[in-house]
Amino acid sequence: xxxxxxxxxxxxxxxxxxxxxxxxxxxxxxxxxxxxxxxxxxxxxxxxxxxxxxxxxxxxxxxxxxxxxxxxxxxxxxxxxxxxxxxxxxxxxxxxxxxxxxxxxxxxxxxxxxxxx
Length: 117
Fold this sequence. Notes:
Blueprint (H helix, E strand, L loop, with lengths): L2 E5 L2 E3 L5 E8 L6 E8 L6 E6 L5 E3 L7 E6 L4 E6 L8 E9 L5 E3 L3 E5 L2
Parallel strand pairs: 2-11
Antiparallel strand pairs: 1-3, 3-8, 4-5, 4-9, 5-6, 7-8, 9-10, 9-11
């Protein structure tokens, strides 16, 4: 049974930092590219950052130099360190696992990040 536990969201002031975590179980973690997506009110869900099992990363332009994605394969957990947060980063953030061969993917339930003074 696949289970994702996301944590770390909350309310933060502009310029602040948060660290999101997504602990997984029930998947062969090393066979998945892990990603964080976000969906702001009235907008489409977008990929924020992704990391392969080998550690290669990519980011949407708007978060480059501010966000860092990482993974701990032993703990089967993916993280998103978010620094210099801006009001435009306000969204529900979702953890995603994308199988490297068959494309099957799984989603977490999301964690809300609100950046406001």
